[in-house]
């Protein structure tokens, strides 16, 4: 099926006009830059309304099947819509665990019933999704998850604890990794995967106050919580495999994602703009030779990531260690982001010590908050240190 | 406009084919034992091997067909140079390519056709550029007088003992010019070889005083100025390509050792203190290769544009610092063995120091990048 350039351009114009007309006014409170910062009901309702609006207009889930609430068109249209959302700096489509991970998973391996039951609510933002993978004692070591699921008639009984549940207090469903067989020879084989409801007795969430002072995550406690047996995805013992597939989506395989602006991207250009009027030694900071040298290094780092994304598709230039570029992508890009945001604070002089809430804080403390939040990406989805081990072992073949 | 700017990355069939052939050639013809066999020879390379490279057409890849070249552009030399860097193969190919590029870009295709044909035929050539160790100093003290006689000397002339032809950067009537000098024109003792930190490389101080330059061996005009600027950028790019190849094989050397050496009952590659910096080297080599082939995607036979300049400078700024880090860690990770001359880590740490100082070090290029990107 070929789509004409004209058709794509027309579509871009149409999305652009819609975004311009529908860009919401400043609500007067801090809006989350990522889905991990939804801390209160006001933010939740604002974002829920926005996502619903984007979906209703036909700019979300465009490549998902039509019968389940999607648009049923080629993915290229969603890519264009996403670009326009970024360009117009509209709010995020915040139901990310549904849109980016659970949804694609259900489309790829779910049953017809699961698709019918879940997909539309993900897109419309009626059903918020959360993820129950990490546990207090097993953060990056997912294979060791200890939360128990015991089959009892046509139900599973859940006991245990999850942590870092993004929007756990708002979610209707959870993608849950739990241990159905504690005696399996390999720890991985004892795990199963559930599409679990959150509104049953015995599931409690407790919000976690983050380093930024805001909320966004919960601890989730399961105490004899009973969920229907048909919440099991696949079969018992397939949990690890399905979780790994989920992580593929999480670590950047965008193929099946519903689209939508998932986070407010802060680029090196934003930072350079931000520091343009700052002073150091009574001169513009951008004239300081040391600052200039560091900035060039950062620009190069960001450019290397963009070039690497392209080179990854040139087979003769990836023969050394195939797979190293995609597998190290999260590591490189999240670490780069963290350093850049830290640097932006460093350049503020004494004002770098101010924080959100101080009237004199630059951009309302944007960079301070953004720097703190950047750790959610260097820790979440496998810490940088674990990512480094993975690259060392899988790409370089170094021993465990 | 974003400071990230152009991110073109293309790789042609010809480049892919050459990369394949060059890697195979270098792997077969330049094992480490052969590299070591040349460390203390005068020329620093195996003349038979050079003849084979010439026979493969490598000396003329970027030269026009009228001069016996294959007109594939300097971008197509990049994969060959990367492969040579990987094998630590020392030959005058980079010097020769750069000398040919300088002549071509200064408008020498017609005037210097015979000289370029000699180069395509295997006559090693080199550029005599520097007069002191500062790559940022572009003043020229070496002159051609009204009598057509050269006065002055050059230093750090790469592959001077191998070169049959020198392209000497001179000042003539207040403007930069290029004088083509044949090796046989030099006075006895005019070449004073350096003792280099990288024993796979050769360079020398060359005294050109008293050498007469025929009118047709002197290139002048505005094109010379542009050509000299482009020479520095292409020199940076080819050095970056070579350093990236060397860093990749340095990484292989580290990884091999980490997989075989045991300490405290465990393979040392299982220790994160060694594992993590090794991944840092991998990602740095990855970025280096991306920059190098981005540069190769943008350099053409025409005067280099801003994006190409940025690409060449980034490639150089990144690649040789990567090799410095890789070579440094290679020595450290080999423990006591790494401190010996016998250990191959020494080849890389030495190459790193040499590469960093060719065509400007990382700070030299970042300083210029800052002006290009931030002002």
Structure description:
The complex is a heterodimer of chains A (400) and B (375). Chain A has three domains: 5-94 and 103-126, Butyryl-Coa Dehydrogenase, subunit A, domain 1; 130-250, Butyryl-CoA Dehydrogenase, subunit A, domain 2; 268-394, Up-down Bundle (Butyryl-CoA Dehydrogenase, subunit A, domain 3). In chain A, 41% of the residues lie in helices and 15% in strands. Chain A has helices at 5-22, 41-56, 75-87, 96-109, 112-124, 239-250, 268-275, 289-311, 324-346, 366-379, 384-394, and strands spanning 129-132, 148-152, 155-166, 173-179, 191-197, 203-208, 217-228, 232-233, 279-280, 283-284. Chain A has a four-stranded mixed β-sheet. In chain A, strands 2-3-7-6 form a four-stranded antiparallel β-sheet, with no helix packed on it. In chain A, a hairpin with an 8-residue loop joins strand 6 (203-208) and strand 7 (217-228). The radius of gyration of chain B is 21 Å and the shape is globular. By secondary structure, chain B is of the alpha+beta class. Chain B has a four-stranded mixed β-sheet, covered by helices on one side. A three-stranded antiparallel β-sheet of chain B has the order 4-8-7, with no helix packed on it. The model of chain B has no long low-confidence stretch (mean pLDDT 96). Chain B has a domain at 224-374: Butyryl-CoA Dehydrogenase, subunit A, domain 3, CATH 1.20.140. Chain A binds chain B through residues 267-269, 272, 286, 289, 292-293, 295-297, 299-304, 306-308, 310-311, 314, 316-317, 320-321, 324-325, 328, 331-332, 385, 388-389, 391-392, 395-400, and chain B through 2-5, 7, 9, 11, 15-16, 19-20, 248, 255, 258-259, 266-267, 269-270, 272, 275-276, 278-279, 282-283, 286-287, 289-291, 293-294, 314, 317-318, 363, 366-367, 369-370, 373-374.
């Amino acid at each position: 099926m070929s789509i004409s350039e004209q058709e794509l351009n027309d579509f871009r114009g149409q999305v652009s006009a819609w975004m311009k007309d529908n860009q919401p006014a400043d609500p007067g409170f801090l809006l989350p830059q990522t889905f991990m910062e939804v801390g209160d009901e006001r933010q939740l309702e604002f974002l829920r309304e926005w996502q619903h609006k984007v979906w209703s207009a036909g700019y979300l889930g465009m490549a998902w099947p039509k019968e389940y609430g999607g648009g049923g068109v080629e993915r290229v249209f969603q890519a264009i819509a996403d670009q326009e959302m970024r360009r117009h700096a509209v709010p995020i489509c915040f139901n990310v665990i549904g849109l980016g991970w659970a949804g694609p998973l259900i489309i790829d391996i779910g049953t017809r019933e699961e698709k019918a039951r879940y997909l539309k609510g993900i897109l419309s933002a009626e059903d918020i999704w959360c993820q129950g993978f990490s546990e207090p004692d097993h953060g990056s070591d997912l294979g060791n998850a200890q939360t128990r699921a015991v089959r009892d008639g046509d139900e599973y009984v859940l006991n245990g604890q999850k942590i870092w549940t993004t929007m756990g207090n708002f979610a209707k469903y959870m993608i849950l990794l739990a241990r159905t067989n504690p005696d399996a020879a390999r720890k991985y084989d004892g795990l199963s995967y559930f599409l679990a409801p959150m509104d049953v007795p015995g599931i409690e969430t407790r919000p976690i106050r983050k380093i930024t002072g805001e909320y966004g995550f919960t601890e989730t406690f399961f105490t004899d919580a009973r969920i229907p047996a048909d919440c099991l995805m696949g079969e018992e013992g397939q949990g690890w495999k399905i979780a790994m597939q989920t992580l593929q989506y999480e670590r950047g395989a965008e193929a099946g994602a519903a689209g939508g602006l998932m986070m407010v991207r802060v680029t090196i250009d934003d930072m350079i703009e931000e520091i343009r009027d700052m002073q150091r030694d009574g001169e513009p900071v951008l004239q300081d030779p040391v600052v200039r040298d560091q900035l060039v290094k950062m620009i190069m780092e960001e450019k290397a990531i963009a070039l690497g994304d392209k080179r990854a598709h040139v087979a003769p230039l990836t023969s050394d260690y195939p797979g190293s570029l995609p597998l190290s992508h999260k590591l490189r890009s999240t670490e780069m982001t963290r350093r850049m945001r830290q640097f932006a604070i460093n350049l503020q002089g004494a004002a770098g010590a101010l924080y959100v809430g101080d009237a004199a804080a630059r951009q309302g403390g944007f960079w301070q908050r953004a720097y703190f939040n950047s750790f959610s990406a260097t820790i979440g989805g496998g810490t940088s240190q674990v990512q480094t081990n993975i690259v060392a072992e899988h790409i370089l073949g170094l021993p465990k | 406009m974003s400071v990230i700017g152009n991110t073109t990355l293309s790789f042609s069939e010809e480049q892919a084919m050459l990369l394949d052939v060059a890697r195979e050639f270098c792997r077969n013809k330049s094992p480490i034992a052969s590299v070591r066999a040349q460390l203390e020879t005068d020329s620093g390379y195996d003349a038979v091997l050079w003849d084979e490279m010439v026979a493969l057409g490598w000396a003329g890849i970027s030269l026009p067909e009228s001069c016996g070249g294959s007109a594939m552009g300097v971008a197509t030399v990049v994969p060959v140079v990367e492969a040579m860097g990987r094998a630590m193969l020392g030959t005058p190919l980079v010097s020769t390519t750069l000398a040919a590029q300088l002549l071509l870009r200064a408008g020498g295709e017609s005037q210097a056709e015979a000289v370029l044909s000699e180069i395509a035929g295997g006559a090693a050539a080199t550029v005599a550029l520097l007069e002191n160790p500062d790559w940022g100093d572009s003043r020229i003290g070496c002159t051609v007088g009204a009598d057509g006689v050269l006065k002055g000397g050059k230093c750090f002339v790469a592959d001077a003992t191998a070169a049959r032809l020198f392209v000497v950067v001179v000042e003539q009537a207040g403007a930069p010019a290029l004088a083509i000098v044949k090796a046989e024109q030099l006075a006895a003792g005019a070449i004073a070889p350096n003792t280099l930190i990288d024993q796979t490389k050769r360079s020398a101080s060359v005294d050109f005083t008293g050498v007469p330059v025929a009118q047709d061996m002197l290139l002048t005009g505005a094109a010379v100025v542009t050509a000299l600027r482009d020479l520095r950028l292409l020199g940076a790019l080819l050095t970056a390509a070579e350093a990236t190849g060397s860093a990749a094989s340095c990484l292989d050397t580290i990884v091999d050792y980490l997989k075989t050496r045991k300490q405290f009952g465990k393979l040392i590659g299982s220790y994160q203190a060694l594992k993590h910096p090794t991944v840092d080297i991998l990602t740095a080599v990855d970025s280096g290769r991306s920059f190098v082939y981005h540069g190769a995607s943008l350099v053409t036979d025409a005067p280099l544009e801003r994006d190409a300049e940025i690409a060449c400078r980034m490639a150089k700024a990144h690649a040789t610092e990567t090799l410095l880090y890789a070579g440094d860690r290679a020595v450290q990770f080999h423990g006591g063995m790494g401190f010996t001359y016998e250990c191959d880590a020494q080849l890389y740490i030495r190459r790193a120091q040499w590469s960093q100082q060719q065509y400007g070090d990382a700070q030299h290029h970042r300083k210029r990048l800052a002006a290009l990107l931030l002002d």
